[in-house]
Design brief:
CATH class: Alpha Beta
Low-confidence stretches: 1-11
Strand order of the largest sheet: 1-10-9-4-5-6
Number of domains: 1
Distance between the termini: 29 Å
CATH superfamily: Glutaredoxin
CATH architecture: 3-Layer(aba) Sandwich
Strand content: 25-35%
Mean pLDDT: 90
Helix content: 25-40%
Largest sheet: 6 strands, mixed
Number of helices: 5
Order of helices and strands: EEEEHHEHEHEEEEH
Structural class: alpha+beta
Length: 160
Amino acid sequence: MPNTAQENPSELQVSDFSLPATSGKTFKLSEARGKHLVVYFYPKDNTSGCTTESQQFRDLYVQFQDANCEVVGISRDSLKSHEDFKAKLTLPFELLSDADETVCELFGVMKQKNMYGNQVCGIERSTFVFDSTGVIRRTWRKLKADGHAQEILDFVKTLN
């Protein structure tokens, strides 16, 4: 399945939010200004696609930093699950816990999916890139995990 990107997503406006993050931190969107920001939503810690995606963001993280960009991952998993996942993969960036789906709803990433023949509501793998002023510059939805981090990095480099 090809990754679908949308330029100038003017219809998507998100208000400020804060979520508990790994490393005992709290992430607040408004405090992320001054750098570009990648926010990637993923369905679940320790699943194959989410592991692949997170490892690739990890492997490119220094290049994201060189492009004046921070990366955060969000799922509905608990902070404990995130801490374990982060340690297992040695992720250098924070994972945010949205257990009550408030931020997932804000970004419109909760979707009905078929899982083993049953309809379930879950996170649609999606990524949002904010510029250093806090404006969403591009969104990706319905994407495949493998190779996605490189595609995001290539776009981020065009913002500088």
